Amino acid sequence: MDAKTLILGNSRDAREIAEELLEKDGDVIVAMPVGIQHAGLFDDLHAEGKTGKLEIFPVAGSFSCSGSVGRFSLTFNGNDKPVTRTVSSIVIADEVERKPNFSLYGVGASSGVASLSQVYEWIESGSGPEKKILSGKRIAFLAGLVEESNPVITEEIMRCALNLQQEFNCQTYIFTGNLKVAGNGLEALYRKTKKAGTVYMKFTETIPDIQVEKGGNVTITYIDEIIRETFKLNPDVTVVDETLHVSALSQDLSNKLEIDTGPDGFIQSDNVHRATVFTNRKGIFVSGFSRGVQTKGDRQADVGSTALAVLNLYQQPPEKQAGKAEINFTGHCVGCLTCFRVCPYGAISLDPKVVVDPQACEGCGICAAECPRFAIKINAPVGMAISERIPEGEKTTDPGDFKPSITAFCCSRSAKGAGDLATCMGYDLPSGLKIVEVPCAGSISREHLFSAFNKGADGVLVLTCHKGNCHSEYGNIYVHQRVDQITGALSQLGFEPERLTYKTIASNMGTEFAETVSAFEKDLFKLGPSRLKPQG
Ligand code: SF4
Ligand code: SF4
After folding, report:
1. Out of 46, 124, 266, 429, which residue is the most buried by the measure of CB atoms under 10 Å away?
2. Residue 352's domain spans which residues?
3. How far is the CA of 324 from the centre of ligand 2 (A)?
4. Residue 263, preceding peptide bond in cis (omega within 30° of 0)
């Protein structure tokens, strides 16, 4: 695979990832929006010592992308002619969008009131008029007084206060609500700031009164909740905390590149099967603030993981680059595009008919199960196709000799593990239980479910990952819908809907697996043999 990566974003994390790849012979294209706050961030990456080639396009929001892992084709639409490049992987690592909470405290930016980002800029410039604004001054931070602060902001405020105490000879005050300092070294930082002289004023019952004076400075009137006395403070600079949101660029890229997002819009959902910097698209990685509000330490870890993931991809031997399934379209395709829409990995494209990129296919089987024309064939090795593995049920229908046959379709990432665990734990599982392991529950089609009954199952269980934890994002939801449709149709025909049951289970839930299958067997004993059973 070509050692070429596109890095989208305008953060220090993006720069560090670019640096690591360039040092390891990788070529890097950086694309970022025009007029951004870290202009020049990548300039010195051209310096000596880097073996890879670097190109910078100030047009991150304005490019088109097709293809998939190994050969993403990009067209940048700048002011001049469109420029086309091909890369094997893409990294998204943008900044977070910060909104100062001025309105929460009833203040506005003035000579005596600044946002946290503004103060960091003054500190970083470190000389001239900015230094004068801060040196030797009384600085008050408003941190989570009205709404709880994110730990990332809490950390930034404490670091800022420490810096001002130690480097600018300031006296700092942190006015805070329910300050949480557990985890990620915050407790140590808290103690360090206190030792350096920062005064913490905590308010759990009252909120300080904040008044803006004529000159733009602020008077903070507050009740000390320990000694119950009222005090006033007139800081030279009052610093307002901020709330953090996903950047517009990250949002735009998640749409453009078809990447799953969480409820807060950050790229990457809380899917337990998705390891850190990986996304639902093979070859597209997400790092730092583009995937969530993360502390400096966590973002640093992301930089290393992203560079490693990209380098591993470059070095992948050809046999590992092949997709996980061979997909063929038959002549029955009517071009409804259902498969194109449901593929969670962006492996199906239009050219002009639907085609699968074998390298991007994860073999989840959702496309085949959803195709209304049965036009998709997944070529699994002999004995591995789901339909071939649906077992024959017990044929005896003598009610006195009834032993329920149960076919349990188990997702390989959850229920199969739970079943194995139940066996290891020594549970006595129903003797008529037969497990059919599937790559993703989304691959279980209506035909598979009917086939299980036609082959003699008295009951069929569909056991999947919990909601929000499907590796294919919606596989468990698709199969749940199919189960609901079939049970609805069967009950109208007078067939007991309880014979087809959907449940979610995690791989570490051996006891729950045993309880589920045993309870299901009990229900089937009550119902008796299925009427769809072939006669013995
Ligand atoms: S879902 Fe089936 S019929 Fe529709 S486009 Fe895909 S292959 Fe063709
Ligand atoms: S099997 Fe899954 S990953 Fe492969 S093309 Fe079908 S839906 Fe996409």
Report:
1. 266
2. 323-379
3. 9
4. no
